[in-house]
């Protein structure tokens, strides 16, 4: 059996293939920072993400600034540096609001709830939960509603407001009952009753 090979010099790039430009150093810093964050190498993540943030600021790339700020918020949150996390998340939130990026707004708001819980600012955490609850209600999102109500119950418990925690669980039970998830609904009724008995 004989095989004829094509001369390597006659092989052209595939149609549609792009010449690879040297990597963008700002984007490289950003991606490295994300990898360091995933690997829990927080100091290195902070350095890389800060460098990326500075690069995005110099370019005036608002989306890059929002993404880098958000990731820096994650680093600070993981290190329980809640005040710094708050600053980064608020910056990202402002840009997302300006760009009317609803999905990103919701994601950042959820992180802000964690930050305010870490700062023991329960009223601010509840305020953001109520904003999200309103958004989920407007968008007819029962899963999101349940998720936030569960978060609210935990915040109420942390703040010693057991009555409101029990009410939040009862509301979750009601939502599950509406979807005929009776056993799940009963588990939330039980949580509410346990809280009432402990009060």
Percent of sequence in beta strands: under 5%
Structural class: mainly alpha
Number of separate structural domains: 2
* Beta-strand segment tally: 0
According to CATH, the homologous superfamily of the largest domain is Tetratricopeptide repeat domain
Compressed to H and E, one letter per element, the order equals HHHHHHHHH
Helix content: over 70%
So, CATH architecture of the largest domain? Alpha Horseshoe
* Major sheet characteristics: none
Indicate the CATH topology of the largest domain. Serine Threonine Protein Phosphatase 5, Tetratricopeptide repeat
Give the number of helices: 9
Rg over alpha carbons: 24 Å
What is the CATH first-level class name of the largest domain?
Answer: Mainly Alpha
Mean pLDDT: 91
Low-confidence stretches: 1-6, 8-21
Given the C-alpha coordinates, what overall shape results? elongated
Instruction: State the distance separating the first and last CA atoms.
Output: 86 Å
3D architecture notes:
This protein has 199 residues and is an all-alpha fold. It has two domains: 24-119, Serine Threonine Protein Phosphatase 5, Tetratricopeptide repeat, CATH 1.25.40; 122-199, Alpha Horseshoe (Serine Threonine Protein Phosphatase 5, Tetratricopeptide repeat), CATH 1.25.40. The chain has helices at residues 25-38, 42-59, 62-78, 82-98, 102-118, 122-138, 142-158, 162-178, 182-198. Helix 2 (42-59) packs antiparallel against helix 3 (62-78), helix 6 packs antiparallel against helix 7 (142-158) and helix 7 packs antiparallel against helix 8 (162-178). The radius of gyration is 24 Å and the shape is elongated. Residues 1-27 are annotated as: Disordered. It holds the Pfam family TPR_7. Residues 18-27 have a biased composition (Basic and acidic residues). InterPro entries: TPR-like_helical_dom_sf, TPR_rpt. This is Tetratricopeptide (TPR) repeat protein.
